[in-house]
Fold this sequence. Notes:
Layout: E1 14-16, E2 20-21, H1 24-34, H2 39-42, H3 44-48, H4 59-71, E3 80-91, E4 100-112, E5 118-128, E6 134-145
Antiparallel strand pairs: 1-4, 2-4, 3-6, 4-5, 5-6
Amino acid sequence: xxxxxxxxxxxxxxxxxxxxxxxxxxxxxxxxxxxxxxxxxxxxxxxxxxxxxxxxxxxxxxxxxxxxxxxxxxxxxxxxxxxxxxxxxxxxxxxxxxxxxxxxxxxxxxxxxxxxxxxxxxxxxxxxxxxxxxxxxxxxxxxxxxxxx
Length: 149
């Protein structure tokens, strides 16, 4: 299966992923992998005294899960050359353990490069919780293959 080539990414085109619940295991594993043991993520008693009232997931964990959900759409299979980075990324609401998230991406720009076999695609990434409240938003850029001649 081949994903979308640069020419197939049209401004305004949107894709929405399936949903996934963020578990305590996800948060604990991410703390171990990243070394981020901030009590907001791992100490329930501490968190009861905060504005959140309970533990919250790491922001980068939520982005990583959203990226995985997007990967499962197979939009980039054999057509992605490189992730060029974020122009912005905001964490707009906390994600708590047992919240369920999904992602939506909307293409905002496609531009040619100096090389004829590739182009840049920019998109807005939005991540929502089970109440359809946005929890993350960012602008990303990707280097995509063009259709073979």
